[in-house]
Amino acid sequence: MQQLIYVSYASDDFQSGDVFKIIETSARNNPTRDVTGFLVYAHDTFVQFVEGPAASLDALLDDLKADSRHERLEVLERREGRGRCFPNWRMERLAVSGGDARILEQKLRQTEISQATIARLVETVMTPRMAA
Ligand SMILES: Cc1cc2nc3c(=O)[nH]c(=O)nc-3n(C[C@H](O)[C@H](O)[C@H](O)COP(=O)(O)O)c2cc1C
């Protein structure tokens, strides 16, 4: 059982409503792959935590890298986990809004993701992106 967390950014191909579609697709596909986790979308930034067998995470990463709705995907941590943290979450959307990222911080503290990465991610989703 591995845990993986990455950050990526909505691309020009991303449309409003896509987050809903992504959650739907994930809920359909992830049980087959034995993958669970959560997704945050805030300030044009995605943070996704996924857990499952290593081969499943590799396959998901291949799909994610080919998905033109986001770009600059950067895996921040990937590690062996002692067990599954979110067994009931096929892919839960965590609402980070109104400048409140406490839910993200709280959920990540239930995982084995390092405190340094958690702090960096909270900062990232709280900061509006500059116009390119
Ligand atoms: C930020 C982001 C997160 C995603 N997370 C998942 C996921 O957890 N599981 C999944 O199957 N697809 C996820 N997708 C969609 C995949 O990139 C891809 O579109 C999908 O796996 C294709 O599935 P389909 O062939 O059943 O349409 C995500 C896409 C984005 C942009």
UniProtKB/TrEMBL annotation:
Q: Which residues form the BLUF domain?
A: 1-92
SUPFAM superfamilies to which the protein is assigned, alphabetical: Acylphosphatase/BLUF domain-like
The record, for Gene3D superfamilies, names:
3.30.70.100
Designated name of the protein? BLUF domain-containing protein
Give the organism, scientific name. Answer: Qipengyuania citrea
Q: What is the lineage of its organism?
A: Bacteria, Pseudomonadati, Pseudomonadota, Alphaproteobacteria, Sphingomonadales
